[in-house]
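job 3f2a | input accepted
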Amino acid sequence: MRPSAAVRGTLRALALAATLTSPAFAADPIKIGSVVSATGPAAFLGDPEARTLKLYVDALNKKGGLLGRPVELVLYDDGGDANKARTFATRLIEDDKVVAMAGGTSTGSTMAMIPVFEEAKVPFVSFAGGIEIVEPVRAFVFKTPHTDKTACQKIFEDMKARGFTKIGMISGTDGFGKSMRGQCLKVVGDYGITILADESYGAADSDTTPQLNKIKNTPGIQAVLNPGFGQGPAIVTRNYAQLGITVPLYQSHGVASKSFITLAGPAAEGVRLPAPALLVADKLAAGDRQKPVVAAYKDSYEAATAQPISTFGGYAFDGIQLVVQAIEKAKSADPQKIRDALEATKDYVGVTGIYTMSPTDHLGLGTESFRMLQIKNGDWVLETPGQ
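job 3f2a | predicted structure (387 res):
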C-alpha cells in the first residue's frame, strides 16, 4: 500500500515550504500543543522534535491548514525537567486551550504530563519510549516510538540468533532506563538467555568503569546490553572501549541518533541496536512500504535544517501527522472525536513503522517495525540476524 494522499501531500509541502506563500485564513486556529526537551541533557532528542514540528506545521499551513483553519503549534521547552513539563501541560489546557497534544521527549516528562491530559480529556501522543505510557491503556494517551519491551524482544531475538545465552546488563536509572531494564528482565527468559551481571548508573555519572569492570570480570558473559537514554550510553560506550571489553555491546533505540555516534566517537564502532527504518532510508529495498515516506522526510528535514536526520524527529513527525490525520478523519477539532479517530488508526505508513491501533493497543507497532543496525565506519549498517 502506498502512503496516503495526505501523507504524500504533506511530504511534498515540507520540501516546498520555503517557496510557498501562506494563504489567508478567516477562521480561528486549531491549536495543537507540544512540550519537548529542546534544551538540557536530552536536547539531542528534543531539538530535532521541535524542528520537525515547526517545519511540519509551517508546511501544513502553507498548503491550506486543517478544515479550512490555520494550525497553531503551541510549543514549550521543558529543558528535560519533568516538573516543568507538567506545568506547561497545565498551561496548554487551561490557558492555551489546545485540542490535542503531540510531545513529551522523555518517559519521565510524559508520565508527569499524562494526568493533566487524561483529566482534561484531551488526546496526548507521546514521543517517548517507556511501555508504561501505553500499558495499561489510558483512554486519551498514545505514543509513536516502539516500546522498551519491543526493543528488548528485538535485541534478544538477535542475540539468540547469534547463539548468545549469557549476558551482562548495565542500565541507566532514568525513567527510560529503569523501564527498559524491567521489561528486559520480564522477557529475557523467553529467549533462553541468562543475565549474569546487572549493573546501573545515574544520569549525572561521568564514569561507568567500576560497573563495567564488574561485568568484564564476570565469567561467561558473551554480550552486554545497555538500556539507557540521553548522554549516559555514550559514556558507557567510551568506557567499554577504554576497558578493552571485546564482547558485543548492544544499545537501545534510545540512542538511535547520529548524535550518539558523535558523542561516543570511535568507541561506537561495532555497537548494535534496534532502530526505525528512518536511519537507513537509503539502504531499504525498493519495494519496502516505508521507503518513500522515510526518504521524503529525510530529504525535506535535512534540506530545511542542514542537520542530519534522527529517529527522534521521526517520532515527532509521526506524532503530529497522526493527530492531523485524526482531525481530518473526524472532520472536527473536538478532542473526543480526535481521540476516537486516533484509536481507529489502521495501516498508517509512518517513518517509525506501520501503525494499526485499537482500544487495547495505543501504539500499534511490533518487532517487525524495528530494523537491527550496527555502527560501522561511523554510520549505520543494516544487520542480518545471526550474521
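job 3f2a | The longest strand covers residues 194-201.
job 3f2a | closed
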